[in-house]
Structures are given as structure tokens and as C-alpha cells.
Amino acid sequence: MGTERRDQDRDRLQAVVQALPAGAVLQGPADEVLAVNDRFIHMFDLAGRVDLSPGAPMSPLVPLVRAFFPPDPGGPHSPEEVLARRHVHRVAEIPLTDGRTIRREVEPLRDDGAYLGALWLFTDVTEVRRHEHDLERDNVALTELARQRNAFTAAASHELRTPLTTVISFGELLTDPAFGALTAEQRGFVDAIRRNGERMQRVISDLLFTTRARATGLELEFGTVDVPAMLQDAVLDALCTSPVFTVLDCTPGPPLRGDRHRLHHVLGNLLENAAKFTPPDGRITVTARPGTEHWLIEVADTGIGIPENVRDKIFNGFYRAPNARSGGYPGTGLGLAICRTVVESHGGTLGVSGAEGEGAVFTIRLPLTGPPAEPEELP
Question: What is the pLDDT of residue 376?
Fold first, then answer.
């Protein structure tokens, strides 16, 4: 019965070691082999080269494994020296001479202080490290490309601003009566110059804003924001350029902490978008309601709407919904990305709903207290 029980225990032990995901050798207290799995044998090409049966000595195994390791002048050299270090838990990553990288872990086994042996685990991490190296290299390349993109965008935008300002200024001079009266057709041409020049100025401003935000983060000047007054100013500004009927329905409420200029810009962008995608006989409605801890602002229109499957994508820079592209509506796809960045920098959220073909509803939720305070760094 004793021999049979020992055989069963040995078989169970071998089954456990065989099931381990790493190459494994179980070393006994007298430096003998207790169990070894196929992964370890294959990893170091040991089949038929050394006795690995239970009870065989470990010392002949050591030089066969160490032959794969690079020379280590300061390390142990003899099998006895290597095995003598089995009493301490150790982990090391070792580049092998054949190009592989192995993670070696030695785990001493004890029971009530009595030494029972050690478990040696060998994991091939070559592909993992190779992928990490590739990712690191790609990240460096992408960072450099982003830097070059930001530098080019900033330089190009600044170079465009000066001639564009000149074009707009001379267009305005043409409307001066001192230079003679214009025919209706000529006034239409000058008005087209002004509209498209101002549109290009907005595109340049958006590009510069995006570049600065990516390079240094968004700079905000927080103060007290009178939400009803800000909404009224934004709607009045929109009415000066939009042919679409716009309604403001705002309930009085408390001020919030925020950057009034940036929030006004968000509302202006949303109203401009709504007017762009809504026919002249449509309608834009701005509603705002205060809550106990936030303001809820909605900008709804009766325009082309946004397909449900792209509602998250439209807040990514330079992305435009398919029905906007196919409909010939102008735009860069930067406006909504800027809006979400500004709103989230205030600790709020910006989302969209509505059915395609029935209009869009953009919902802004802004906390009264602004963004949460950043934790103070310990000295």
C-alpha cells in the first residue's frame, strides 16, 4: 500500500507540474528532480540528453540549461553554486543566446520552516517584450508626428490669417460709399467675400484652438457666469447671421463657475451647426433649466439629424456625419470636438439625441461649482 500511495502522489505531482503554463522543474530537498513538464524539456531541447526521471540528480541538468544563457562573469558557475541559491525567491529576465527572452522564477517550498525543495519556472516572454518594444517605438513616432502636425497647423494658420484679414478688410472698403455706389450684383459679390472670409477665420481659429489644446492643454479663466444672460447674448449673435427662426426658453437660476467666453463659444458653435443643417423654414429652440447642482441646456433643431451609429464619432476631431458630407454642407468637423472639450473641462457632459431626418438635440450638463478640484500634491 505504501508503494502504491507513493506512486499515486508522484503521478498527481507530475500532473500538476505538467499543467503549469510555464516550463517547470520541481526540485527536491536533496537537489533531485521530483517532476518536470514537457514545456521545460522543449524550451531547452532536453529530450534524450539528460535523465529527468523522478529522483534523478539536478546537477547534470544545470549546464545544459545554462548553455543557452549569456556568460555572466559575476554569477555562479558550477551546478552546485547554482542550486545552492534555491532557498531564496528570485525573479529575473534573461536574454538567451538564441534571441529569446526568458523570465526565470525560483520559488522555495517550505512547510513550518522545513525546506521541501524549490519550484523553477521558465516563461518565454520574447513576443511580449517584442510587442512592448514595437509599441514604444510606435508611440515615439506618433508623438513626433503629432508634434510636427501641431507645428505645421499653427504655422499654416498664422500664415493664412494675415492675407485673409487683408481680403476681408478690402471687401469692407468696397462697401464704403466714398468709393462709389455698388450695384446689387456687386454687393452680393462683396457679401460673399465677407461671409467666406469670416468662415475661413473661424476655421483657422478652430485649428489654432485644437493645436494649443493638444500641445499645452486647455486654458480656462474661471469666474461667475450668468447663464441666462450668456444664452441671450449667444442667441442674439446667432440671429444676426442665421435665417432660421430661433427661440430661447430659459428659466432663471443661480450663476455657475466657469469660463464665460469659452461657454459662449460652445453655444455659438452649437447654434451655428443647428442653423447650417436646418432649412430656412425650420426652427431652433434653446432651453435651459437649473437643477440643484447643475444647469441643463438643450439646443434642438428641425434639421437633417444625426445617424444613431455615428453620434459618438461626431465629437472626434475632423469627423463629419455621412449625411452632412453627402449633403454638401461645409465644415471641418472640429466644432463639436472643441465643444465637448470645453464642456468636459468644466466638469460637464455634452451629448446628442434625436432621429435622423427629424433634427438633432444637443444636451449640455454643467455643474454649478465647475470642475472638481485637483488633489493637492504632497510636499
Answer: 46
- CA–CA dist 190, 173 (Å, integer): 10
Return the pLDDT at 374: 59
Question: Model pTM?
Answer: 0.55
Average pLDDT over residues 241-249: 88
Distance CA 353, CA 364 (A): 12
Q: What is the DSSP string of 355-379?
A: -TTS--EEEEEEETT-SPPPPPPP-
Element (H, E) at 192: helix 184-216
Q: How far apart are CA 34 and CA 14, in angstroms?
A: 8
The cell for 132 is 512592448
Distance CA 198, CA 200 (A): 5
Q: At 107, give phi and psi (nearest 5°).
A: -120, 110
Q: What are the C-alpha distances in Å from 9 to residues 16, 24, 31, 67?
A: 11, 18, 19, 33
* CA distances (Å), origin 268, targets 175, 242, 311, 340: 27, 11, 20, 13
Reading the block at residue 324, the C-alpha cell is 452632412
Q: Environment class of residue 205 by beta-carbon count within 10 Å: exposed (0-12), middle (13-18) or buried (19+)?
A: middle
Q: Which has the closest alpha carbon to 100: 130, 74, 77, 121?
A: 130
Longest distance between any two alpha carbons in the chain, whole Å = 120
- Contacts of residue 360, defined as CB under 8 A and 6 or more positions apart, other chains included, come to 274, 277, 300, 301, 303, 305, 306, 352, 353, 354
Given a contact cutoff of 8 angstroms between Cβ atoms, the answer to whether 361 and 299 are in contact is yes
User: Model confidence over 9-50: pLDDT tens digits?
Assistant: 788 888 999 999 999 999 988 889 999 999 999 999 999 999
Decide if pLDDT at 1 tops 50: no
pLDDT (tens digit, 9 = 90+) per residue, 328-337? 777 777 888 8
Rounded to whole angstroms, the Cα distance separating 320 from 367 reads: 29
Residue scoring higher pLDDT (295 or 193): 295
